[in-house]
Design brief:
This protein is α+β, with helices and mostly antiparallel strands. It has helices spanning about 5-15, 40-60, 75-80, 80-85, 100-110, 115-130, 135-145, 185-190, 195-200, 245-260, 310-320, 345-355, 395-405, 420-430, 440-445, 465-475, and strands at about 20-25, 35, 65, 85-90, 100, 160-165, 165-170, 180, 205-215, 230-240, 270-275, 285-295, 295-305, 325, 330-335, 335-345, 355-360, 370-375, 385-390, 410-415, 435-440, 445-450, 460. The protein has 16 helices and 23 strands. The chain is globular and about 75 Å long. Keywords: Aminoacyl-tRNA synthetase, ATP-binding, Cytoplasm, Ligase, Nucleotide-binding, Protein biosynthesis.
Length: about 475
Amino acid sequence: MATDQNKFQAIISHCKEYGFIFQSSEIYDGLSAVYDYGQYGAELKKNIRDYWWKSMTQMHENIVGIDSAIFMHPTIWKASGHVDNFSDPMIDNKDSNKRYRVDHLIEGFAETLAADAAAALIADMEALLKENDFAGLKKLIEDNQIKCAVSGTVNWTDVRQFNLMFSTQLGSVSEEASEIYLRPETAQGIFVNFLNVQKTGRMKIPFGIAQVGKAFRNEIVARQFVFRMREFEQMEMQFFIRPGTQKEWYAYWKEERMKWHQSLGLNPANLQYHDHVKLAHYADAAVDIEYNFPIGFKEVEGIHSRTDFDLSQHQKFSGKKMQYFDPEINQNYIPYVIETSIGLDRCCLMILSESYEEQDLSTADKQDSRVVLKFPAKLAPIKLAIFPLTKKDGLPEIAKELMASCKTSFYCFYEEKDAIGKRYRRQDAIGTPFCVTIDHQTKEDGTVTIRYRDTMEQERIPLAQVKEMVMRKIME
């Protein structure tokens, strides 16, 4: 597994320096595995979210969106299987008292091995996980002399399950409060609203319900920046279908979701499918779309054929019928479901990883370099930066007129300070695709200099065409 830890650390540093992502509660020494999005990170995240939402709800006539609550009735999580099954195998080192997720511990060790040995070790681990063979997993760790990073010893406890849900109290007085959970996924909010949406929207199967929202998991070993966090955001769509058609729809959504990732401008060589070896309790087929991060190929999105498990369970636990009458075949049935579930934070990290470049621009006469984020224009936090060449001679007034005409349509940035070269470099570092400079020639012939981020080429275009050109690029 090829990794580039130097690039990964450079991206993390860049995100902090340029206002993309900060450690949460940093002035209090931070909160582990929780992050805040800064001014440009929030815009990037919003643009990805909006692009996904549009691709699901606006571009499909049979998919609608909802926004369900984070707090839900606790029986929902019993019905869904999360109370009994939402857990990961953990192991503790007796000398350091440090707890590890077993698969992370073994995967971390595998990264230090040659490719063939690493593949064999991962295959052994996946086979044991599939069988829930905890004794075998411990033996695998001990046989390979996998050490604790803190103590350096192989003195391990037995492997056991650890539930990942956060619990809290709902009620005004602690004695009267009842235990509820912060949702570990957004999917159940869709399932419990299946009939509400179907009836009020007069939806006919096949149809989908999409949702974007926060989810919470008590990850014991949360690591790798925003890749694995305790508070994160999901973009999920549950597609309700007639039983017996799940293979066709699973294949359809598997292909559609890969096309969506490629539409983000990602190199196809950096994307791959990974079929699940061990299926979740609700699935009859599951695949991940993985991206080649600097830390290796990792899951960004899952496509799952969930059968009728969820709606059947909610029918059983609630006592309410979750059936659909299909007029085409004159039958009542509980629909099957195909799920697409993508992590928005992981998607942000994916776009940052794909876009980040360190370029050496040195010539024989001069040392020079730049860091650039080559975001697709539609995702870039700022679409257009507007620079008057000087602070006088009426140039700022012209620049501000352009700003006023563009900012209602897309995010712009205005700056007068510093030499024009320094201004360009700052915009390169935050991924702004276009910079326009207003100079004295603008007053003479109504043209401006537009500079393209990726090539650094410049050309003169009419001032009146700037807005239309940027709009066209962000719609591509």
